Amino acid sequence: MRIIRNKEGKLDPSLVFGETVYWLTLTGAFIAVIGSTLAFTPGIAVLDPALVFESIWSGDNISEIWSKAGDTEPYGHWYLARIPAGDALAMMGMASAIFSLIPATIAVGWLMLRRGERFFAVVALLAVVLSLLPILGVGTG
Amino acid sequence: MSQKNNPSIAQGRRNLFARIPELNVLLVAILASYIGIAWALLQTSTSDSIQIEIIAIVCGSFMVSLLIAIVSVIGGVGGAVIFTPIMLGFTNVDTLVVRATGLIVAMFSGLVSSGPLMRSGLADIKLVMFGALPIIVGAMFGAHAAIELAGTMGEQGDALLRLLLGIVILGVAFLFVAGGKQSECPGNPEPGKFARTIGLHGWYWDVALNKDVQYNVRRGRYGVVVLLIIGFIGGFFGLGGGWAVVPVFNLMMSVPLKMAAGCSGVLLAIGNAAAVWPYIMVGAVIPIFAVPWMLGQVVGGIIGAHLLANVRAEVVRNVLVVLLSLTSLKLLARGVEGMFGFNVPLL
């Protein structure tokens, strides 16, 4: 745990944030690598890879891409329900990497509070709340 | 800060790939994945030309993304500044898919570079949080305003705003050129009252200069207001805040250029994270199309963060001037197109 502690042996908010996001992003990247490889294996993908690329490069919109290459229109966190599929796994890898900011920012807020830096604790808390709203689908229509 | 107690940084200029085993593992995994994809495609009944086209797109996207990430991390701007004009200018890909993938490109180099940047002291979580909140709030209001005003502003009004914004960004690029070396390391001015109250100051070890660089933040309150406006403009036009965070931190708040670039990358990842979820939920992020771009950003982001620690601030300034100039050219072109109704080639 030396990597997230400063010279005095205390947890450093910058290091805790950086290491949390770094390692969770790398984990997400590995999941995405596995998922995208599986997605090209016939029969274990939500979207047919050849049709997806053909549809994207011909300028089709989202609905057309999904209707031509897939079976259903995506809604919400669609990938969670389709996890065995390679492209759903790849999407989950990307989503989990993006989500890494939430625990990292919560940890920063907690450490700032412990250090008596209430201004930055409140800022971190607000950043978490504002980041969680779109994940929960609030205000996104 | 964290510089001297971190073994990975203390190892100095040792070969990048020897210092970061996880980067090697990731590169091997990506290579194995692309071999696997090629093999899987060969098992299908798809025609040879389409198989080769798909493999070329996947590998090409990864390589282009890797280069974009290195440049954008050094300049402290999101990769979308380069990605979006290229995709909109040279391909038929739907704008919603481009914007969604652009957000992935804009944020993943920032996400992954947060580790090396925080370790090397080139990003300070206080400065990041200080800038992130007004950018997020401004972007949310900007996006809503864009929807509300879409019917009343008209194409001419929208084009005029783009034209003005292009001129402003070109002016900022000029300030970096005119400011010269003074903008790279603004010295150690007396801290502002607001910044002193909240403890917004610090230092980092500059490998290129081989010395500590102290900094005090000035004009913090004005910084919040300007970042709020930048967030609003970014949300309104779908630009993000990458074009302006480094200039505000450096030229206005007296943060050294390398620290400003380091914080900007991480800050943009936080800001773009809030924006990308709605795109994910409507299916605009197409996984097999976006993953090569994402992987290029991850690998390039790690390399870029380590290069940023070692390059001279002058390099950061030059990269930033080029990127800001390209962004302003794009905005000026779209402004002129909207106002006078003709296409500007290549832009």
Please describe the structure with a list of short key phrases separated by commas or semicolons.
heterodimer; A: 141 residues; 0% strand; B: mainly alpha; two-stranded antiparallel ribbon; globular
How would you describe this structure to a colleague?
The complex is a heterodimer of chains A (141) and B (347). Chain A is built from 7 helices and no strands. Chain A has 141 residues and is mainly α. Chain A has one domain. In chain A, helix 1 (13-39) packs antiparallel against helix 6 (101-114), helix 2 (49-57) packs antiparallel against helix 3 (62-69) and helix 6 runs antiparallel to helix 7 (118-135). Chain B contains 14 helices and 2 strands; from the N terminus they run αααααααααββααααα. Chain B has helices at 7-10, 16-19, 21-42, 48-75, 80-90, 95-119, 125-179, 181-184, 193-198, 220-237, 245-252, 257-281, 287-310, 313-340, and strands spanning 201-206, 211-216. Chain B has a two-stranded antiparallel ribbon with strand order 1-2. Mean pLDDT of chain B is 82; it is low at 1-10. Chains A and B meet through helix 1, helix 2, helix 3, helix 5 and helix 6 of A and helix 3, helix 4, helix 6, helix 7 and helix 12 of B.
How would you briefly describe this protein structure?
The complex is a heterodimer of chains A (about 140) and B (about 350). Chain A has about 140 residues and is mainly α.
